[in-house]
Amino acid sequence: MVRFTRVGLAYPDQRGRPGPEVLRDLSFTLGEGSFTWILGPSGAGKTSVLRLMQAALRPSEGEVELLGIPLSRARRRDLPALRRRIGVVHQEFRLLTHLNAWDNVALPLRLAGIAESTIRADVADLLDWIGLAGKEARRPEELSGGEQQRLVIARAVVTRPALLVADEPTSELDPRQGRRTLALLLEMNRMGTTVVVATHSEDLPQRHAGRMLTLDGGRLVADG
Ligand SMILES: Nc1ncnc2c1ncn2[C@@H]1O[C@H](COP(=O)(O)OP(=O)(O)OP(=O)(O)O)[C@@H](O)[C@H]1O
Q1: Which part of the chain is the ABC transporter domain (predicted)?
Q2: Residue 104 domain-assigned?
Q3: What is the number of structural domains in the chain?
């Protein structure tokens, strides 16, 4: 499902030459339907690992295989189709501010050319699931932080991705809203989606099941 084999990553410097390695010799496999935490202090490389898992970057060394596709062999024009099978939840919500809640969730389906009748049913179900039924017409600024983050999750899962990747999804939220957001990710996982969540909080993973991959200085230092 997700396989990293001896992965190294160096971002290019301002002249386009490889900068220092920020990920080193990372190897692990995440099975289909698994739930994994990526832990580590600031700068450990969590976001970089997640970017590789979104096919937003290619590794400088080694191989990343996503949903059966090795990135080294994927052609540039194949990447958008691969990315559509991967849902992404960012820490900063990145909702479209001029669209209401309904249209934010419907957007990925519209871009994929899905029929409006299907979109109506799917979006209504999802907004109900995240507890936003009745708030469809509100724009993001008219929703609480927790509601916005749940909307981001609805938008990320509306296309039924096989893999859901979330970067610090609860760090901007109060504890109650954070728990509610996490409950949605756990429920997606129970329904079969492979879920990966990066966090610098050790508290969350200790209270919930799931594998913990701990990074430090771009290396894997614990797997349990
Ligand atoms: N676009 C970039 N260009 C150059 N270096 C980068 C870039 N993005 C991240 N880095 C560097 O890569 C290293 C790992 O960063 P990354 O954001 O992956 O860590 P992180 O564990 O997610 O940190 P945080 O918890 O603070 O978000 C850091 O040294 C960072 O400065």
Answers
A1: 2-224
A2: no
A3: 1
Alpha helix locations (H) across 11-115?
A: 46-53, 79-83, 101-111
- Ligand 1: centre distance to CA 36 (Å): 20
Would the CB of 11 count as within 6 Å of ligand 1? yes
DSSP β-bridge partners for residue 65: 3, 70
Domain containing residue 20: 2-95+160-223
Residue 31 inside a domain? The answer is: yes
Single out the residue of 90, 33, 31, 88 nearest to residue 65, CA to CA: 31
Question: Complex ipTM, two decimals?
Answer: 0.96
Q: Determine if ligand 1 sits within 6 Å of the CB of residue 48.
A: yes
**224 residues of the chain, pLDDT tens digit each:** 899 999 999 999 888 888 999 999 999 999 999 999 999 999 999 999 999 999 999 999 999 999 999 999 999 999 999 998 999 998 776 899 999 999 999 999 998 889 999 999 999 999 998 999 999 999 999 999 889 999 999 999 998 899 999 999 888 888 888 888 888 899 999 999 999 999 988 777 777 788 999 999 999 999 98
